[in-house]
Amino acid sequence: MPVKTFRPLTPSTRYITIASYDEITKTKPEKSLVFTRKKTGGRNCYGRITSRGIGGGHKQKIRNVDFKRNKHGVEASVLAIEYDPRRSARLALLQYADGEKRYILAPVGLLVGAKLRSGATAAPEIGNSLPLKSVPIGMAIHNLELIPGRGAQLVRSAGGAATLMSRDEGYAQIRLPSGEIRKFHENCFATIGQVGNTEHENVVLGKAGRSRHRGIRPLSRAVAKNPVDHPMGGGAGKTSGGGHPVTPWGVITKGFRTRNKRKLSSRFIVVRRDGRPMKQY
Q: Which residues constitute the domain of residue 261?
């Protein structure tokens, strides 16, 4: 999917690029599969702001996406490829043989009219959902489960794809898009192929208004604030603060590892995303 560019008739159009949306075949969502999203403005249940820089933006409907693919053995046909305002990937609208409709993430190469299946007996073809024990070695997968039956939690953004490297003793080793190699139970389900909308990373917003349409409000730089407002604030003229970058509450923001060293799931990590082997504590 290419991106569109514009003649620089205004300062913003000099840099702005937008998605072409050529693959979209249906403009309005399926009414039975959407519900209204209530905006929080970054506030919790007590009305206190816990996430800064959130507010405004266009109204969005939540699409109920099927991440479990638990209608095993029932054939489904692709009715349409749709846009989802809350994620970078496109959605495919499926209609099963019994008449039920569901949304799934649309992989690269999935066309309207294609027939899909899920389950251990499904063929390893684009869009089909299979347990890892049935996926051929070396195949690209996405929509990956962490725990069997919970539903897919990994490799769901546009252009994402993981690779099944090997299987041994009931576990499969998978290279994730981050470069991390991790063990997954062979009963975890994954979908064949790469997530669609691969050109999403080339989209340039180009102006502040496009961020505001997405509900992202501006934030002041830390070094532009006063010392009373931020640990990095103050100083005569332009200064970087003189210390390590931190949050307004003093937590280090760069190079500070927040993962618990003794987290139980660390035993499933074979190679970390920086290429070093995972230490077992």
A: 220-281
Which residues of the chain fall below pLDDT 70?
Answer: 1, 241, 280-281
The enclosing domain of 248 has a CATH number of 4.10.950.10
69 within domain boundaries: yes
Q: How far is CA 212 from CA 55, 93, 102, 164, in A?
A: 8, 29, 31, 39
Do residues 250 and 230 touch, judged by C-beta distance below 8 A? no
The number of folded domains in the chain is 2
206 within domain boundaries: no
Q: Which residue, among 112, 106, 110, 124, has the nearest Cα to 189 in the 3D structure?
A: 124
pLDDT of residue 1: 58
Question: 107, 193 in Cβ contact below 8 A?
Answer: yes
**What pLDDT score was predicted for residue 97?**
94
- b/e per residue, 267-276, with b = 16+ CB within 10 A? eebbebeeee
Looking at the structure, do residues 44 and 88 belong to the same domain, yes or no?
Answer: yes
Q: What is the pLDDT of residue 48?
A: 97
152-155 LR contacts (CB < 8 Å, sep 24+): 152/67, 152/68, 152/69, 152/189, 152/190, 152/191, 153/67, 155/195
Q: 112 and 63 in one domain?
A: yes
Query: Quick one: which of 39, 51, 49, 56 has its CA closest to 208?
Result: 56
pLDDT at 281: 52
The reported pTM is 0.90
d(CA 109, CA 192): 11
> Cα separation of 136 and 122, whole Å?
12
